[in-house]
Prior knowledge:
- It is a single chain.
- The radius of gyration is 18 Å and the shape is elongated.
- It is built from five helices and twelve strands.
- A hairpin with an 8-residue loop joins strand 10 (about 145) and strand 11 (about 155-165).
- Helices cover about 20% and strands about 30% of the residues.
- It is of the alpha+beta class.
Amino acid sequence: MSTDRTFTHPSVLAAIAAGEAWADxxxxxxxxxxxxxQARAAIPFEVVDGRxxxxxxxxxxxxxxxxxxxxxxQLCADAIVTAVDSEGVPRMLMIERADGHGWALxxxxxxxxxxxxxxxIRELHEETGLRLPFGRGHxxxxxxxxxxxxxxSDEAWMVTVPVHLDYGRPxxxxxLAGADDARRADWLPAANYDCxxxxxxxxxxxxxxxxxxxxxxxxxxxxx
Length: 224
């Protein structure tokens, strides 16, 4: 007896019925031109019997999209915004996700025709209100990486391009306001990953979004 699980969340089906842009209306993945999608994928993946295969570990959901609207890879960009405050404390900008999945880096989908750096800057402004002043900030796109998103399946997954935006050492850290997909935003002390976790718990009773844990560990502990 097969133990392969099939699941697509009702919210995805409802979005398809409503014509939402984030939900791919194609119900059968074998009808998709996978050669074209494979050619533009940031991380290579296989297609077996006309169905995409997550290049990472099994999610436990072999068929269907779980809570994601697309089939195959969805390219995203995440803004890793760092700064040093007036007292010399390293800070990182984090947002509390409105979907209840914890605290994360500002980020989201890379729109068609948009580069990851500009996508990260756009998402940063939409979710926190922050605009980087002209001439300030060093932008560096890091290598694309597969993320362990709890909403993924073996046929729908997330890949992100982390974009480091160094705000430098301003006289005063600019104010932030959570908006769009963010409930709130904050400049958290982040000398290392444990420091970030401690302050996130003490200040907000929060935890890090599972999809960003490995990335933040690597960035803050010198692995990237």
